[in-house]
């Protein structure tokens, strides 16, 4: 019975739809559709011209098929034809097809634009609306170019019909979003703003969307909209429910318009004009009052519409954050909703209250609802509502209620949905740290967290508890005792074993007096978990064992026995094996003094922003954690981490080899910024890195070739250059300024300039720690034969200050002849008593002394031919390591110092450069040709220079750059 | 703003879809299936707003038909929720007791109605009789 179709029913279409509905299976449906597609194709391709009605019918069928989820790749032309029909229904289907199926870069746009142009000038309002809809839906650049200047005129013209104005406003909004450069608002601004006064509510509704967007981009130009919006809002809010007739929805006057007005006002600060502000406050009070009045209708639509306005008004009140009275009233209103029977309202109230909690005026008022919120967390049946409740608890937490909230969140965790556990864990960890007054509570909380939701406890969380325990003397004994007890559980989470291993390894001695936790008991407890753990945890445990040998000499024999057994010393995992071998040897060779020095207690960690907070922010996306929260954390966090009372203790650190930064700095969440000391240890190596780090930055803990500790006395010789020094060098081939080097302590910036055969380089040393470096010295040297090739002299000024050195060190270079090696920069200083010794290569490369040479195509190839001896040419074919984008390549070649010659190479894809290298004694001419092959992602680089060593060196240098 | 509006039945068949932000054609089917699964699995007493990826879904059920609206975070959920109802009331008025079949067989007209109410992801008209003006004019002409 396909009689349901209204009006000019298309019979063929109705039959087709009925057929589809009657299909018993997906296969039958697909078969029917394919048959229909074939039919339509043949109709469109046929010789007989189709009339408008048939075209409309077939295009309509295609739309229906598309809706069923099938691709439509034809019919666009027929749809475009329909646009020029005089019949509304045909035109409408044509436009509908285009706005659903044509994307903005279609080649049909020009045809469509023509049709739109005709309709816009037709003066037929329905046609104009269709055309404007179409522009708003497709919104391509080409359309913007064609119509951007005309739409504002239509929008503000006095004789434009209301419905056309509505469409024009939304159309302009789209064009402004896609091509803001083409939409010139200047002269129209005030007339557009005055649309807020239009007597037609539909026009106002449409115009607000446009004005809101424009205000966000140019708040100053549209400032006048505030007073207009306030007076409009005031008229609506104070009107009787019947005044606005058709714009009244279930006795609520113009709810959507009111919401949009309130939203527009949120683009601006509170009005400065007292009268306007007074009127607005009055509006907001009226809205709050209305929420308390008995409903005019029992229908849910009535209360929903009323509450939509209420929530928007509360958003505005929160946005202003300046009216304590309104804020508290808003809070009380939301408090009522928290117990409403409508789930939607409870959800929105929790969400809205979350933002109220961060206002100082309403924070206390929000806190009074804590019991209700806790109850919501326990009893709500919808996980998204529970999630909001958890968010709100987190937001309302402060010192006064932290213990209660953390306890509730912990107990909720036991049954929490998997989807939100990780976030909950992070939140509990942050609150526990932020509001810890006594650290035993903090330690208890985190260990509970691991016990309850171990799988969801990320590295950041357990790193953090260790950081804090190490930094706080007063909690270490308690932590050791608690973790020891937690490990007694027959099944405990691997994260617990990690924390246990680390803490007992450091502070097990603090509880060793009790016979129930004697050293051997502690060791046996840890070792009983060993076999169930993953490789990184086992590695950590091995390190804890060697620390035990130092803490408790009486366990030495037992532990050596364990290390010696085949499953350790011959473990198939190379990391575990190495640790077992090295620790065994260390424990048998080294004297007690050496052991004590090497296995010294970990020094305190420098204070940083909690890595957990960073993780939560990442998880929630930017903006999720408010700025105030960050500041809060700084303020409150200081208390736990002891800002002033305990800086790093130089005396303690001097005795410790571990004072050099080791990869255990991962604890601080700065792994990415630590290029120093590529220690040959695997991930998860925490304790052991302190000994195995052979990096030049820690010569005092140097490890000789056998991998055993050889010397504990600090060496004064310059360390060998860092292994990555060459890489650092490559970074600066095509640029002169930047960061040369960075580790946890030090950042070195570089600025250089070159003229002919002279160069000057400024080095900026930045101290990243909070303490002064002692005896900071730098020396520049030219190793080996470089001495005869390059004069490098430095004018060092001692820098021991904190932060950036006020006077950069200058280094002058004079190139005597061509060279291939780089001068070395050695830096020595004492940090916390330990000598830091660092050697870098200065990025002085031969190409820095280039003078660009411009030449014509003819000259270039003449020179090219002259340099045809085989040793003068160097060529390399290599794979692209970086972007092959033309602009990037050009920038690099210019940075190289040569002239980039256009129109020289017959193949425009290729790059040709020429330059002269100035040395003291001679000039070396160089020609370069770079041939990219985008398809294969390869380059061929050819260099011809008047000196063969220069060709080779340049070729080597450049091959790393592209 | 509103990102898209879907009408789906309990079997998950799309009856109407309108996108106000470009979504590649190939990705629409996936998105629709996922969104529908997300809403259909929810119980009556759960709330009508769902966080979905980086935006929100507001949905409302009418017998076997679900209307799902994807909105950005800044949109007022309740007003969208009632907008859906207003839309259904307009359909009801035009088709006198609208059913899923009416929507299937009169897709073009449903689109005209929707386009009168929402343009470019923003509410433009909420007045029922004005929303229906073009359609009533059309039916009077009966030019088919």
Automatic annotation (TrEMBL), chain A:
Composition skew (Basic and acidic residues), residue ranges: 631-648
Start and end residues of each stretch annotated as Disordered: 624-666, 790-811
Job description of the protein: Component of the adaptor protein complex 2 (AP-2). Adaptor protein complexes function in protein transport via transport vesicles in different membrane traffic pathways. Adaptor protein complexes are vesicle coat components and appear to be involved in cargo selection and vesicle formation. AP-2 is involved in clathrin-dependent endocytosis in which cargo proteins are incorporated into vesicles surrounded by clathrin (clathrin-coated vesicles, CCVs) which are destined for fusion with the early endosome.
Protein family (similarity comment): Belongs to the adaptor complexes large subunit family.
Alphabetic keyword roster: Cell membrane, Coated pit, Endocytosis, Membrane, Protein transport, Transport
Mode of membrane association: Peripheral membrane protein
Coiled coil residues, start to end: none
Polar residues bias (residue ranges): 790-799
InterPro entries, A to Z: Adaptor_Complx_Large_Subunit, AP2_complex_asu, ARM-like, ARM-type_fold, Clathrin/coatomer_adapt-like_N, Clathrin_a-adaptin_app_sub_C, Clathrin_a/b/g-adaptin_app_Ig, Clathrin_app_Ig-like_sf
PANTHER family listed in its UniProt record: ADAPTIN, ALPHA/GAMMA/EPSILON
Subcellular localization: Cell membrane; Membrane, Coated pit
Gene Ontology cellular-component terms listed: AP-2 adaptor complex
Gene responsible for this protein: ap2a1
Sequence ranges of Low complexity compositional bias: 650-665
Residues covered by the Clathrin adaptor alpha/beta/gamma-adaptin appendage Ig-like subdomain domain: 730-843
Oligomer and partners: Adaptor protein complex 2 (AP-2) is a heterotetramer composed of two large adaptins (alpha-type subunit AP2A1 or AP2A2 and beta-type subunit AP2B1), a medium adaptin (mu-type subunit AP2M1) and a small adaptin (sigma-type subunit AP2S1).
One of the GO BP terms on file: intracellular protein transport
Pfam families to which the protein is assigned, alphabetical: Adaptin_N, Alpha_adaptin_C, Alpha_adaptinC2
Name of the protein in its database record: AP-2 complex subunit alpha
Any one GO molecular-function label of the UniProt entry: clathrin adaptor activity
UniProtKB/TrEMBL annotation, chain B:
UniProt xrefs under Gene3D superfamilies: 3.30.450.60
AP complex mu/sigma subunit domain segment(s): 1-141
Keyword list, A-Z: Membrane, Protein transport, Transport
Membrane topology qualifier: Peripheral membrane protein
Biological process, per Gene Ontology: intracellular protein transport
InterPro entries: AP_complex_ssu (IPR016635), AP_mu_sigma_su (IPR022775), Longin-like_dom_sf (IPR011012)
Transport in keyword set: yes
Subcellular location: Endomembrane system
UniProt keyword annotation of Membrane present: yes
Domain of life: Eukaryota
GO cellular component, one term: endomembrane system
Function recorded in the entry: Component of the adaptor protein complex 4 (AP-4). Adaptor protein complexes are vesicle coat components involved both in vesicle formation and cargo selection. They control the vesicular transport of proteins in different trafficking pathways. AP-4 forms a non clathrin-associated coat on vesicles departing the trans-Golgi network (TGN) and may be involved in the targeting of proteins from the trans-Golgi network (TGN) to the endosomal-lysosomal system.
Subunit: Adaptor protein complex 4 (AP-4) is a heterotetramer composed of two large adaptins (epsilon-type subunit AP4E1 and beta-type subunit AP4B1), a medium adaptin (mu-type subunit AP4M1) and a small adaptin (sigma-type AP4S1).
Similarity annotation: Belongs to the adaptor complexes small subunit family.
Protein name as catalogued: AP complex subunit sigma
Organism: Cottoperca gobio
Source taxonomy: Eukaryota, Metazoa, Chordata, Craniata, Vertebrata
Gene designation: ap4s1
